[in-house]
């Protein structure tokens, strides 16, 4: 890796994944993920019948991309954005704390665990803080 482990994971999460989700670019967001990613996500921002107790699980970048293509439309209507606050990583495993921020500036904190392989995220797990 050309950046240190923490900076690289921040880059993958914020600049590649979340920034592209927030600007409705699902295909670009999915590029943060390894082809064989296992992606597990509990809803953080409840909307459109998506509740925090619902867990979505996908295997492979294509499934994640297809899911994001559909869900991004709803996120754009909600007007939410994602901001990573803290990242820790040893280059293979990592964790992060972030917020989903609404139009009214309200925040919903969440945590994530990741595993990296070949400079991409091969395991992604997100849970709301509360």
Strand order of the largest sheet: 2-1-6-5-4-3
Structural class: alpha+beta
Average pLDDT value? 90
* Basic shape: globular
| Whole-number total of structural domains | 1
Q: What Rg do the Cα atoms give?
A: 14 Å
The low-confidence parts are none
Q: DSSP strand (E) fraction?
A: 35-45%
**What's the order of the H and E elements?**
HHEEHEEEE
The CATH C-level name is Alpha Beta
Largest sheet: 6 strands, mixed
* CATH architect. name: Roll
Tell me the helix content: 25-40%
Number of discrete helical segments: 3
Q: Compute the number of strand runs.
A: 6
Distance between the termini: 34 Å
Classify the fold: give the CATH topology.
Nuclear Transport Factor 2, Chain: A
